[in-house]
UniProtKB/TrEMBL annotation:
GO terms for biological process, alphabetical: chorismate biosynthetic process; shikimate metabolic process
Molecular function as annotated in GO: shikimate 3-dehydrogenase (NADP+) activity
Organism whose genome encodes this protein: Corallococcus sicarius
Designated name of the protein: Shikimate dehydrogenase
Source domain of life: Bacteria
Lineage: Bacteria, Pseudomonadati, Myxococcota, Myxococcia, Myxococcales
């Protein structure tokens, strides 16, 4: 099956020339279609002809009627099978859709599609997920809609805080994929990033290759999708998300995960690991096997510091890895939790707090070297905070990341 067409939705803040610039940027990054919705833009806020000259234009009727000028310029016209007064669209241009207000069984979903649909129309079914396990229902709905209308015409999408990996799995049999350009705005909860989807379609060697992914919070900066084999999904979840249920629901569809903050300890407990924290899951038949390749990263950082006595700020999953390897290298390790900080701090330190976690206001350094194990923009923000507080940052996040990722790759190759 051919790769799904990648659709970006025009944000409500962009009009006129800015809207055209958005479409051009999306085309450059791998988008195939730009969508304009009537609930997001007034009829005269955009120039449909100008947008259609950049790439095919999808115009979607949401609450307000579609302007005739939009329909004239459209590649496809999206009308809801239950809400639209009529399903009129120029021949070959209808996208028949249904946006359910709540989760449905497959039987309920199929009943929503009792209205006659033209043979040349595309079919899109969208519903919110009531939990990770709802993926199985959506897959069955996708299968049965494809049997009714033809697989090349059908798209099934989930929405909600745990919908992103479900969308990744569903995408393999979908004709359309609605993606986010990045930043604070997305057209629907659970959308994957355009850059990640374009990378997968560009680099995946096998359309049916088992999936990999990274699980964490605020991981838009992660380089894992860039260095590991495709398909590799960036699964960004809220800190209180049911990550245990997420990994259980995805066991048939993924061969492994990289696990980052704040889920390292929770998934160690969930998988029954003897370790306090893990950062790698590998599928072993009908279960997840857990590993901590952060020990490779911790070893690299302690070697770079070259000190016999090191203190650690924070006691999360990364600190567990530092504990495991410090003894092997003959390093005396002291762990200092947030409430135990007594400034000023001297000597050699490792800062393990994510950049989204505010350090104590009283924290100050005096002649201290501080290893930063975050990388990219978060690492630079942590380093700036260390400088502001009188310390000398050592940017060792890349060394940690590469060392642990190399071992992860080896483990995923053993998945069953």
């Amino acid at each position: 099956m051919m790769a799904a067409l990648r659709i970006i939705t025009l944000p409500p803040t962009l009009t006129g020339a800015d809207a055209v610039a958005f479409a051009k940027d999306g085309l450059r990054r791998g988008a195939d279609v730009v969508e304009v919705r009537t609930d997001l833009h007034a009829p005269d806020a955009v120039d449909p002809e100008a947008l259609s000259r950049v790439m095919p234009l999808l115009v979607s009727e949401r609450d307000k009627p579609l302007p005739a000028a939009w329909v004239k310029a459209a590649w496809r016209v999206d009308r809801d099978v239950e809400r639209a007064q009529d399903m009129d669209a120029p021949a070959g241009r209808l996208l028949a859709s249904h946006h359910a207000e709540g989760p449905l069984t497959t039987a309920e979903a199929l009943r929503r599609w009792s209205r006659p649909i033209p043979a040349d129309a595309l079919v899109k079914h969208v519903e919110p997920m009531d939990g990770p396990a709802h993926l199985d229902v959506l897959l069955e709905t996708q299968r049965q809609l494809s049997a009714r209308f033809g697989a090349e015409r059908v798209t099934v999408l989930g929405m909600g805080p745990v919908a992103l990996p479900a969308r990744a799995v569903l995408s393999r049999r979908n004709g359309l994929e609605y993606v986010a350009m990045g930043g604070a705005w997305t057209a629907a909860p659970g959308q994957r990033l355009l850059d990640d989807v374009a990378r997968e379609h560009r680099k995946a060697k096998d359309a049916n290759a088992p999936r990999l992914g990274i699980l964490g919070t605020s991981i838009s900066h992660s380089r894992s999708p860039r260095i590991h084999r495709q398909p590799f999904d960036r699964i960004d979840l809220a800190e209180d998300a049911p990550v245990e249920a997420v990994v259980d629901s995805l066991l048939p569809h993924y061969v492994g995960f990289s696990v980052t903050s704040p889920f390292k300890m929770r998934l160690a407990r969930h998988t029954g690991s003897v370790m306090e924290a893990i950062n790698t899951l590998v599928r072993r038949g009908s279960r997840w096997a857990a590993f901590n390749t952060d020990t490779e990263g911790a070893s690299a950082v302690l070697e770079r510091l070259g000190s016999q006595s090191v203190s650690v700020l924070g006691d999360g999953g990364s600190t567990q890895a530092l504990r495991l390897v410090a003894g092997e290298q003959g390093v005396a390790l002291t762990v200092v939790r947030r409430a135990e900080v007594q400034s000023p701090l001297t000597g050699d330190w490792v800062w393990t707090w994510p950049d989204r976690v505010a350090p104590p206001e009283t924290l100050r350094f005096e002649g201290a070297r501080v290893a930063v194990i975050a990388y990219g923009a978060p690492g630079r923000r942590v380093a700036a905070e260390i400088v502001r507080r009188g310390g000398t940052p050592l940017l060792l996040g890349a060394a940690w990341f590469v060392a642990q990722a190399r071992r992860q790759r080896q483990l995923w190759e053993t998945a069953t």
